[in-house]
Amino acid sequence: MSRRSIFLLAATVVLLYFSLIVFMLSPLHGARQVYYSVGHRYALRGAAGVTWCKEPRYQPAGPSGRAVALASFPGSGNTWLRYLLQQATGIWTGSVYMDFGLKVRGFPAENVTDATVLVVKTHESPPPDQFKAAVLLVRNPRDAILADFNRHLMGHVGTAPISAFKMKSPDRKKSAWAVYVSKNVAAWEALHARWLSRFAGRVLVVLYGALVRDTRQALLDILDFLNHTVPEEDIYCAVVNKEGIYRRRKKLQDFDPFSADMYRAMAAARARVAALITDYYRRHNITDKLPSIGDLLAQ
Ligand SMILES: *[C@@H]1O[C@H](CO)[C@@H](O)[C@H](O)[C@H]1NC(C)=O
Ligand SMILES: *[C@@H]1O[C@H](CO)[C@@H](O)[C@H](O)[C@H]1NC(C)=O
Ligand SMILES: *[C@@H]1O[C@H](CO)[C@@H](O)[C@H](O)[C@H]1NC(C)=O
């Protein structure tokens, strides 16, 4: 063998060896392996995997192209209802926000706001002309404010420690928590008032308490409002899997962070929002599905 061919052979071996290493290390190779080993089940990827009743997809946008809003005050169960609706219909739900945490865990349509999604999450006031209708998810202010406070501190499923409620505000007169509550009770009332009085499209009020108590009926009412029919077994599957992965489990035991003054302010705000809901239903002649206002008034 000539020196030249020995050199060529050696070079080829070295080249092959290195390309093999590069191939093994390449992220594409790693990604493919994961992809093939779990098949097309998006649901099984990641530590906090979601198992879908059926793999969700996008829907055709329809002639108006405008989506239905899923409006709520933060902490009112918006993510949980999105999860339930995705399970029941097999259609993704969108959001006016881009929450990267949610995007990789079962909500790939974050930041999608057109009618290719079933509903679009928003915590904002109704924007002019963006939505054709709205599902307004209403939770009592106490639990919503507490859930959102927990989310700010601990993320989507954690619970804030008791010390978090005792920190002083900058002016040292009230606790930071008291300032937070009074600001948020006002915001809670204002958000519902705007959707019930300023939004031009139809509004379906869904009370969080009713959604928890009779998830099946609440889903049927929402799907009816969306003109979306699904087979009974899909509703059943959604209800059976209703716990999902986005419910906060741990509750603070024997500690109520709300003072009597806070309860008074919340009761007044709840009564005013309940009156607005009743008024909305009366104005629109909706008699069959008047939500039980007791649910809203009960703590
Ligand atoms: C959200 O969507 C808009 C329009 O589709 C796009 O311009 C924007 O970059 C997106 N935001 C993020 C954070 O991906
Ligand atoms: C459902 O259908 C009714 C009757 O056709 C229509 O008035 C209503 O706007 C539709 N609702 C939604 C959310 O598209
Ligand atoms: C509400 O219903 C009443 C009686 O059924 C009817 O006379 C009235 O026109 C309706 N109003 C609206 C806004 O549909």
TrEMBL record:
Protein name: Uncharacterized protein
Taxonomic lineage of the native organism: Eukaryota, Metazoa, Ecdysozoa, Arthropoda, Hexapoda
